[in-house]
Amino acid sequence: MPSKLIERCSRNADIRALEREGLLEVSRYSRKEGKCREFRVPLPILREYLRLVMQHLDAPRVELFDPRPAGGLLRSVYSDESGHAYPVLLRRATGVIEPNGLWNLKASRSFLEEQKAALEKLEERLEACFGSPYYPQTLHTYERALRRFAHDVMGVNAILANRTGELRDGVIRYRVPYIPTLTGRLSFIGGGAQSCTREMKAAGYSGIPDIHNYDLVSSQAVILVDLLAEAGLPTDWLGEYLVTPKECYAALAGLSVDVWKTCLYAVFMGAELPEPSQLHLGRGEVRRVLLKAVGEEGLLAAYSRFYEVVKPFYEKSLKPWHRHLRGRWLKENGRVGRGGKKYVRNAVGMTLCVSEYRLSELPRKLAAFLLQGKEAYFIHTLTVLSHKYGFIVVANEHDGLVTLGEIPEEAVEEARKRTGMGYARLQEKDFVGKRS
Asked: Which residue windows are coiled coil (predicted)?
């Protein structure tokens, strides 16, 4: 968490006292490594909090420091803290989706009860194996399940807070409140459907006739090919990757497809990829993801395999591209604004003040800013075309959309022409990730 955000939101909080009392877990931070301080609620507190939320899902909302009922529904945010309106395309896309939320409350409640029962069994197993060699792995499994449960409980809770009506068979209507991220993506205020697990989304959208789930195919990898070509850098490795089943690369690295993609996209965004012999010196994003996936004992082997697969692309294309971003690209695209600070703009029209970051931080910030900006540009353009082509956008999923009615190819083609992203392809999937 950036120190500026801590100062703004927790100015009067004694973080160290909370940590001493065991009410908050706090990680170390490092300016040298570009690592923010992270906070985590201890498991016993999280477990009790979730129990209370589950117990009172239908309770009326009240203001935190005033026991009167909370006033009104959450609304989307259309301007920044200084009162400046967000880009027109982003505001139009937000307005299109905001009144259209649909959710199968009955099915999602049933799934929450299933998760709760599974957690209770894990708690029994955890208690039974305390002190045995199986305890650490069982604790890891339990913690992962509890935090997935937390995402789903809070996602459903945020949806319920904005309920506007009832349909049949347990389906509700709700207002979808969005706030833009720094890159131009739309983020559901409170998490909502975006923060739910795939399985919860499958439950929440079940029983809704003509519902469809679309993703951009390998969106950021495809966009990166275009950006590398603009910089005059090799694209052959990435081009081959895009036409090869991702399971092949994951198998070469000995990882699941999800872990493989998480690590690769972290490298896209500027994560360091040191030699395996230097792995113990760093605490980078790839190391963190692999440590969580395979544990300390399997970390070096997993990292070494991943490194060998990605090294040619990293050395010939990614490292030079990250240098290009903070060098020639920034020089050509930076504009001096208020107070002599330098700003850049991405495809969706959001601006980033690069003067607020150290030179070593810029590749990560600029890579995400450009990649996610192009992704958002296409998704928002397709959203505003929904009225013209007769489909209804129910939810934004960053690199995809949930719709009532199919998105016709004519709409996708017009979005390609408007954005200049002729390579963009849309793919329909079910809500647990399989192609339909």
From this structure: 102-132
